[in-house]
């Protein structure tokens, strides 16, 4: 009976995280901010230990893509060399259970197509919470991409990405990383944007 209760609690927690991660409509033009579980965390007294944890977390975030070794959803090998092709790359972490994630896919695909020869690109990264992609989820991913007529590459959390704590602990979908040509993260954006919002962001980086 105890194990059954724990299993139900685990399922409810997972569902709550996915619901919380999806963005809620805000007042900022072109941007839909997301709600994170961190907003509900009580403030605790800081210690040297927590400071070290924060430092480790920052390091974990910074090296997500510098030595990336993973695959796309079709099983093709992908590594950090994909970033060298462009000045700036968006890596959009999403989940099929997040409506704002799904709604922005057509705009992200449009951005990827229009900036293909202008120094920018877009990659999706499916957020599976470290549990792997089920057959049902894979079917949903492909249906969503097909219905949106989207063709930009979708990465999996395999290889180095499967063990990166920052990725495994993401609690807000969508989360988009702005990545430089050397794989370093230039910015992290929680929440979705429309076409004009993404266009303005990329143009600002290309102008630098």
Attribute tags:
208 residues, alpha/beta, Glutaredoxin, five-stranded mixed beta sheet, two-stranded antiparallel ribbon, 38% helix, disordered N terminus, TlpA family protein disulfide reductase
Indicate the mean pLDDT.
80
CATH architectural label of the domain at 65-208? 3-Layer(aba) Sandwich
The fraction of residues in strands falls at 15-25%
Described by the principal axes of the CA atoms, the overall outline is: globular
Counting H and I runs of at least 4 residues, what is the number of helices? 7
Rg computed from alpha carbons, rounded to a whole number of angstroms:
17 Å
Run of helices and strands? HEHEEEHHEHEHEEEH
Give the end-to-end Cα distance, rounded to a whole number of Å: 60 Å
Indicate the percent of residues in helices. 25-40%
CATH topology of the domain at 65-208: Glutaredoxin
Q: From the helix content, strand content and strand pairing, which structural class follows?
A: alpha/beta
């Amino acid at each position: 009976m105890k194990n059954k209760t724990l299993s139900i609690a685990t399922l409810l927690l997972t569902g709550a995280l996915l619901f919380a991660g999806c963005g809620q409509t805000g007042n900022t033009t072109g941007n839909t901010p997301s709600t994170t579980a961190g907003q509900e965390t009580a403030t605790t007294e800081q210690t040297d230990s927590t400071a070290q944890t924060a430092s480790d977390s920052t390091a974990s975030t910074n090296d997500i893509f510098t030595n990336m070794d993973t695959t796309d959803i079709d099983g093709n090998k992908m590594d950090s060399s994909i970033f060298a092709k462009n000045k700036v790359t968006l890596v959009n972490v999403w989940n099929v259970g997040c409506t704002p994630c799904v709604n922005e896919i057509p705009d992200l695909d449009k951005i990827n197509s229009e900036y293909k020869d202008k120094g920018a690109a877009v990659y999706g990264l499916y957020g599976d919470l470290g549990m792997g992609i089920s057959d049902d989820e894979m079917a949903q991913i492909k249906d969503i991409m097909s219905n949106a007529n989207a063709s930009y590459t979708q990465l999996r959390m395999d290889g180095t990405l499967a063990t990166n704590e920052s990725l495994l602990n993401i609690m807000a979908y969508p989360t988009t990383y702005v990545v430089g040509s050397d794989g370093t993260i230039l910015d992290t954006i929680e929440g979705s944007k429309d076409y004009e919002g993404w266009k303005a962001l990329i143009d600002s980086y290309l102008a630098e």
